[in-house]
Amino acid sequence: xxxxxxxxxxxxxxxxxxxxxNVSNDTLWAIKNYxxxxxxxxxxxxxxxxxxxxxxxxxxxxAIFKFLNTTDMPFSAIEFDG
Length: 82
Prior knowledge:
The chain is 21% helix and 23% strand. The protein has one domain (20-80). It is of the alpha+beta class.
């Protein structure tokens, strides 16, 4: 029998893209405000371009999706990657 004594990594990452044409400015503001807030316990970050808001996290614990359900954004506005 083999016994592993070294470091074992079980990390994951997740990301999403929100197309700005599909959501209101108020919703985009709410999402960015959430991502910058202390409520963002999963460590989500984002980058922004003219047409997209790109969110990413090292670990995906689902809190961002609970938050997104409180907005008027349709899930068809999100492309998942990862």
